[in-house]
Specification:
BirA Bifunctional Protein, domain 2, alpha+beta, binds phenylalanine, two-stranded antiparallel ribbon, single chain, 20% strand, rod-shaped, 333 residues, seven-stranded mixed beta sheet
Amino acid sequence: MEPLQQFEQFEAAALAALANAKDAASVEAARVEFLGKKSGRIKELQDLLGKATSEQRPTFGAKFNEVRQRVTAALEARQLELAKPKASLTGFDISLPGEPVRLGRRHPLTQTMDEFKNIIGRMGFTVANGPELEDEHHNFEALNIPLDHPARDPLENFYLATATATAGGPVLLRSQTSTVQIRVMEKTKPPIRIVSLGRVYRPDTIDATHSCMFHQMEGLMIDTSVTMAQLKTTLRLFATAYLGRDVTIRFRPSFFPFTEPSVEVDMSWGQGWMEIGGAGMVDPSVLRAVGYDPDEVTGFAFGFGIERFAMRRYGITDIRRFTENDVRFLSQF
Ligand code: PHE
């Protein structure tokens, strides 16, 4: 056989073996058979080169290099091909881009409440909790709200069937978080510094600024000489920390059965006044009812709507957004 034919035959045999190799092991076997350093058939071609005359050498050398390059390239291509998982083997193509994972997030009101707890916590207030199903004793009586007070009108509250009445009287969905003041004072001796955040319920007609369920943050501080000035400072520092700029607090005289004096609290941070809630000095009769001596301790209490703060801070114009569960809204926080 002509030497040049031998080169061609080597190439054809090697390419055929590679094409027929169905797995990595057969490719490796073909590599050893043809290109193996010790006993591969490529040695025969090297021998031919060795025996070539000086005229043959340039042609043989060029041919040898070409053939070796093509076989090596075919080998690498086949190795790559077999390394790729086949769709039929795995059921899916792992080279396709993945589906993006959508991360959930905390509800904007939960985020707001967590932030509130954080800020007020740095001022020494710990978090207390109370039930949403409350009795008349905690929702009204202990808070000095008499039976004939308009706030006790059954049409202004969500009462449960009378069959659920307890030792504390008929049961209703709490209409204010002030109930937690009573629960804490009944169980704890002064000094007290707590906040309580949670849902309250009132049968209001639902519109952009009213809901039959909303959230309040209640604050209570009791000690031997708590003053109204401390109340105002606490509210100012809190609002300033939350809104990120200097907030002015304004008190307007008001009335709540459980505080004396009582105020409506407004705040301003540049653009007009916004009413944030009620506050005052805990009424002596409330202190007495939980067994405290009003001559020894005084305290302040405040309660405000959480939605309002969050709406102001984020520019939300409709309170219903919070409960619609529209992901387009929720994903913005
Ligand atoms: N509980 C009152 C309300 O819901 C707010 C308030 C809390 C007022 C504490 C005074 C002291 O309107």
